[in-house]
Amino acid sequence: MRLYGVIAAFADPEALTEAVRTMRARGYRRMDAFSPFHVRGLAEMLGMRKTRLPWAILGGAVAGAVFVYRLILYSVEIDYPLNVGGRPLHSWPAFLVIAFEAAILGAALAAFFGGLAANRLPEYYHPVFNATSFTYARGGKFYLLVEAADPKFRKGVTKGQLTRLGAETVEEVEA
Amino acid sequence: MAEAFAAKPGALPVLRGRHDLPEISGRISAIVLDGRLPRYFWAAFFSCFVFVLIFLYSITYLISVGVGAYGINVPVVWGTMIGNFVWWIGIGHAGTLISAVLLLLRQPWRASINRFAEAMTLFAVAMAGLFPILHLGRPWFFYWLLPLPNTHMHWPQWRSPLVWDFAAIATYASVSLMFWYMGLLPDLAVLRDRAKSRPAQLFYGILAIGWRGSAFHWARYQTVYFLMAALATPLVVSVHSIVSLDFTFAIPPGFHSTIFPPYFVAGALLSGFAMVLTIAIPLRWAFSVQDLITLRHMDNAAKLMIAAGMIVIYGYASEAFFAWYSGEIYERTMMWQRAFGPYAPLFWAMLACNGAVLQLLWFRRVRLNMPGLFAIALIINVGMWIERYVIVVTGPSRDYLPSSWGEQSLRWLDFGILFGSIGTFLALVFLFIRILPAITIFEVEELAEERGSAG
Fold this sequence. Notes:
The structure holds 2 protein chains of 2 kinds. Helix content of chain A is 46%, strand content 14%. Chain A has 5 helices and 4 strands. In chain A, helix 3 packs antiparallel against helix 4. By secondary structure, chain B is an all-alpha fold. Chain B contains 16 helices and no strands. In chain B, helix 6 (161-194) packs antiparallel against helix 8 (215-248) and helix 10 (295-325) packs across helix 11. Chains A and B meet through strand 2, helix 2, helix 3 and helix 4 of A and helix 2, helix 6, helix 8 and helix 16 of B.
């Protein structure tokens, strides 16, 4: 059995947050926390950098609007220009409506697929599911996983530290 | 109504009682996984299914015979298909309002009702999307609305509100679906882990796409979910505004008015919240979740109904006032004919439902009386359908030339398609409750944790 890490279960988000803070202070860097709902500030504490997703979403909005507006311009000015009583071919107020909808659609697609891609989902296999204590089934548990790849990781020492932080269970996770 | 009398004024809680996290996820997922359904669930589903069959028969009849088979005729060439379309799309909007706008405003009471409100949006948009296509006369050419490369070298007319409408509805349906699935993801992981049977584990496991609740995932999830909510908010306003442009860009008296976009959006919210209550009141009673979907939710939804309803009433007043103030004989005639002409009973029924009955909601006793509130919600649903029908029909029926005045009559096919679509919508809601968690597990858990009621 190759060891992926050690996972500890805590009863509430406060205990988990405290454990993350202490373990970071002790120099652990390769850690992940799991919770049934978003615990504010936890990811920053674990060393997550500010996400660039909002820029991707803005990019999606601009790309959607520009693509559709150009498509309309191509159709009315180049591919099929139709002179109706000398009115301008480029009647932009009418074109803005669909360009707006396209901006929203582009941004939403970027948000949805960009968000999934940044989280590397869908993911077929992840070692954390090997831990018998890790499940949503019993509801409301908060987990801290310390990876074996962490330079500070010593199996016995790390397990002892997690137990002393008030973990309900501490379990080794197979890779 | 012991429930109502127990609650002190101004102190309606979002969640009632103490909940611990395993209890919340256990109760909500048991509905899906153990099939703990109320006694008449399947009987109710199958009575809706009869209407699905009626819907399919009516659509088949409409397509094989042609649009003349329902009540439209020159000069009134827009009939119940367009009315149904506007009505259904409006119903969908309350779901987006609850899930997106209330999320941005950080209203905690949205948490237990947003899931089924979003499902309601999706099904309502699915129903709405059918009607313009059925109205086309040759529905199999609907893809001509898309800018597809093709051999007959045509393009859509970009300046037409009908093409804008197509773009708006398609965007709205896609964004609603993505937003809904995003919100479902953590709950699907709960179902995956709680499922006992292999098929259920596989089904929810595939849908959960490996969600494990990592802190890094949650941080990005939060960013994306909020931004999608921020996108859905202007979208929902633009969609119904564009729907109203279908009318205002045309010149028949009664259509050509600048009040239409805000008036339509407010009407959409009114009918949407009426539909939310129509579903929520039986749901909380049938599944005994009165402590998760509380009187606070009902009270707030009723208050939003009255807010939206007063804007709608302002719209009615503004339409009538500007018809008179414009000095245009055609506008004045149309308004007069709307109130006292052949469609007068419908016009007054509309005012009675959306104007008079709505006022009952000012009273707290009425808002907290569930059978009463349910009845009012149904009446407003009916009233809003009548409103859409009155708007669609009365304008063209009293056009500029009195010689071309005419009415349309409703035929069996109008009713077959309307009631068929309602039955299909409800059948989809029943299936949704059976297959997916109707209450958002993770948000209710978060709420319970924040309120300190977690054990």
